[in-house]
Amino acid sequence: MPENLSDGNYKITIDGQNGFSFHKEANLVYQQKSIAGLIQISKPVFKPGDTVQFRVIVLDHELKPPARVNTIHVRIHAPDEQVIREWSTAKLYAGVFENELQIATSPFLGMWQITVLVNGEEVVSKEFEVKEYVLSLFDLNVYPSTIPLEEHQALSLTIKAEYHFGKPVNGLAKVELYLEDDELDQRKEFEVYGTGQVELRFKGELSLYELSQNVRVRTTFIEQYTSKEGAKGCRMC
Questions:
Q1: Which parts of the sequence belong to the Macroglobulin domain (predicted)?
Q2: Which of 122, 130, 166, 176 is the least buried, fewest Cβ under 10 Å from its Cβ?
Q3: What are phi and psi of 220, to 5 degrees?
């Protein structure tokens, strides 16, 4: 291909020579050697004050570091499109650029974006989320009141909710029972004053074809005064 050939649609024609009868035409789409990019981030969600560590990998169409690209342009945008940090001539080492960003203690919350440009054109971008860490007000524990056996045809549970300093929590418990095929068997709601018990009798007869059978219990607890929720999922056999 000529070095100065521009991108576009072309047609190639092949004709036979020296008495050889042959004619063939085909359409071609030509693009100059393309550049691809990949962004790796240390984790998808950060909280205020965290450090975002990231790596940019730039490759050519042969998945090799591009010989003609030595620097890239990297921007980090907040949710309001404001550029928080920028590297206008980030140097590539074997096609890789690594750096980090310290998030402020009172940042814009939401989806942030890292954008990479080569020769003024965007090559790749990736988002990460910044949100406040919400500390749970209470601990929620769910465990069998008795060892479940086939003859019981039921599951007896104890639900215990308490604040981190040990005081019991009052509220509403919602318990869902799912059988082994993840089919919802039943749902119950009841008031709990620190500790409560509930018996979930299976709607149909449960027969064990093996030594044990798994069921799944999901418990949601709503604190009485603040309406804060806590949830716990567990499997029992």
A1: 39-130, 132-202
A2: 166
A3: -115, 130
Measured in degrees and rounded to the nearest 5, phi and psi for residue 50 equal -70, 165
Q: Show the domain range for 98.
A: 35-130
Strand order in the sheet with 121-130: 45-46, 121-130, 110-118, 71-77, 83-91
Among residues 31, 51, 33, 32, the alpha carbon closest in space to that of 43 is found at 51
Name residues whose C-beta falls within 8 Å of residue 183's C-beta, 6 or more positions apart in sequence.
none
Highest mean pLDDT among 20-24, 102-106, 145-149, 215-219: 102-106
More confident residue, 204 or 47: 47
pLDDT digits (tens, 9 = 90+) for 133-192: 766 678 889 888 887 666 667 788 999 999 888 899 999 999 998 877 677 888 999 999
Does residue 230 fall inside a structural domain? yes
Helix (H, G, I), strand (E, B) or coil at 210: coil
Across the chain, mean pLDDT equals 85
Q: What is the distance between the alpha carbons of residues 53 and 72, in angstroms, rounded to a whole number?
A: 17
